[in-house]
Amino acid sequence: TIEPLTRPLPTLPISLAQRRMCFMEHLDEESAANNMSSALRLTGQLNVAAKEQSFQALIERHEVQQFVYKAEQGEPVVVHRPDLKFQLPVEDLGHLPDDEREAELQVRLHTEANTRFDLTADLPLRAKLFCLAPEAHVLLLTIHHIASDGWSTAVLFLELSQLYAAQGNGRAHPLPDLPIQYADYAHWQTNWLQ
User: Fold this and answer.
1) How many angstroms separate the CA atoms of 91 and 159, rounded?
2) Parallel, antiparallel, or unpaired: how do β-strands 35-43 and 136-144 relate?
3) Residue 62: CB partners within 8 Å, gap ≥ 6?
4) How many helices (H) and strands (E) in the chain?
5) What's CA 68's distance to the chain center, in Å?
6) Which one has a higher pLDDT value, 166 or 11?
7) Helix (H) or strand (E) holding 155
8) Given pLDDT bands bounded at 50, 70 and 90, which one contains residue 170?
């Protein structure tokens, strides 16, 4: 059974997968191979402030999205940074002619998806919103694999949509508290292996 740790924690446990990712990032400091990106086309009115607040609520809900990774005496350590705030940058492509807009969007999506995370300072989740027209947007979500996997990304998108729907309608946070966080799993894994 994975039991939740008492918080706040003086130090956070690191899982074997996170340790491996830190090692691989150190080996190739130019690579963005661990970036996972997904783009969504959004149609209709969009409340950008509510979308940004939804992302912040998502990050607050999933503690692993608040971690940065440092090295102490050559060993990777997790640092909890709940003070880091999410920002949703918006790029307006609506001024471009129709025949150029989609091509420019693809270039910018590719560039953003392949921009490396600085795991020592950045949240492991970022997003960018591209405005194509007043009611046409593309939302790009990029997550570092150290904080998510393909299955988890689908969960994050579902929760983001639920948070945005509540935020846009002035309702309370609709999601129940999580019984455990990733640090609880990492602690369990370390003890089990010992």
Assistant:
1) 24
2) antiparallel
3) 147, 156, 178, 181, 182
4) 5, 6
5) 12
6) 166
7) helix 150-168
8) confident
Q: What is the DSSP letter of 29?
A: T
Amino acid letter for position 166: A
Query: What's the CA gap between 53 and 69, in Å, rounded?
Result: 25
CA atoms of 23 and 34, how far apart (whole Å): 12
The pLDDT tens digits of the residues spanning 70-123 come to 988 888 999 999 898 999 999 999 999 998 999 999 999 999 999 999 999 999
Is residue 140 classed as helix, strand or coil in its secondary structure? strand
Joined tokens for residue 171: 């309702």
Separation CA 177–CA 35 (nearest Å): 27
> How confident is the model over 11-29, as pLDDT tens digits?
788 999 999 999 988 888 8
Rounded Cα gap, residues 67 and 145, in angstroms: 13
Measured between its terminal Cα atoms, the distance across the chain in Å is: 16
**Cα separation of 143 and 124, whole Å?**
6
Q: State whether residue 143 is helix, strand or coil.
A: strand
Determine the 3-state secondary structure of 75 from DSSP. Answer: strand
